[in-house]
Amino acid sequence: MVVTEASTRVAVSPRAWWGAGFALATVGWGANQFPPLIVLYQSRLGLSATVLDAMFGLYALGLVPALLVGGRLSDRVGRRPLVLPALVVSFVASCLLAVGGAGPGWLYAGRLLAGVASGLVFGTGAAWVKELSAGAGDAGVGPRRATVAMTVGFAAGPFVAGLLAQWAPAATVTAYLPHLVLTAAGTVLVWRTPDPGAGNGSGPSTGTRSSLARHFLLVIAPFAPWVFGTAAVGVAYLPALAAHHAGRQPLLFTAVTVAVGAAVGIVAQPLARAAHRPGTNRLLTTAMLLVLAGLGCAAWAAHVLSPALVVAASVILGVAYGVSQFCGLLSVQQLADPRSLGTATATYQVLTYVGFGFPFGMSLAQTHLHATPPVLLLILAGLAAVATGWLVVVTSRRRTDTRVGSAGPD
């Protein structure tokens, strides 16, 4: 048994975080099971790429307010009272998506509710995993476990949904059934998971709040969008470009590409751990260099429309996601007061999800500005390069300031 950092001092098992981690993985599955079915909906419902990208982005419309409300509320009432109803919402979302073959309205509603469920769980759940990992003796364990849990869901969801969409009967229904089973199991596990964050108090001190706000403004705001920006490009944008060049199995190609791109986020965790050097910006720089490499490869893949290059680009983008997600979570959770951990984590997650708008923005630019995908991806890479330069300068200067000490991203 270990004792958590929460002010309530609740003793928990070293494996107590599994319940919160399972909830993160389950909701991550539900969030990411839709993209591999995009090709199927295009052919069966005749939906345009812009409409489908809008559905993909509608997820963020439900997610952002739920993150902001859920994180703050969980600091007051605890993590379990937020995660349990979120699993129910996630279940309902998959039910709506399962009848989406009858018309796009069901898909819009399902994606919106999937966003609400994700918003309630991702910030709150990541904070919960961190609290339940306090006895591990390593500040990086909680963020690493949360990253792996979410990434397992992000990888397994599209892979299983894509396989079912390719070969199962009633594909637009069957693809969502595994997630319904997982949410039911997750509800039981979460009900039995200890909640050391319940009743942690009113909030952080003024000094802590000021330091965290400055860190968010100077470092997290320009960094966070690239976390899910890379994932969104690899999941929702690139595979659809080359799916029809993948022979007779476009759905299988999309499912495998999305799953592999997400799964390498787990494989990337040893790299993230090796790059982490307290008191330096090495982890941050590594993450942004991977973002640049992934976007550069994506632009090349979009130019030649090679399925093999699309997979390669998705792998690099997946590694970039895994390293950058760990970097951002570690950065925020090290600075946040335990009494505002849910709020800080949720605010960080909101900023990461700005990147989910990248595919929709690029689709609009293609339609109205007649820009080509390779050009748009190069523009995105240019913006990432500017952000990288800013972050290197800012974090280098902050390391020399004894008043902020270890407030850098590592």
Automatic annotation (TrEMBL):
Entry's localization field: Cell membrane
GO cellular component assignments: plasma membrane
Keyword NADP: no
Domain of life: Bacteria
Residues annotated as domain Major facilitator superfamily (MFS) profile: 1-399
InterPro entries membership: MFS, MFS_dom, MFS_trans_sf, MFS_Transporters, Sugar_transporter_CS
Keywords: Cell membrane, Membrane, Transmembrane, Transmembrane helix, Transport
PROSITE patterns according to UniProt: MFS, SUGAR_TRANSPORT_1
Main location: membrane
Pfam families noted in UniProt: MFS_1
Name of the protein: Major facilitator family transporter
Organism listed in the record: Actinocatenispora rupis
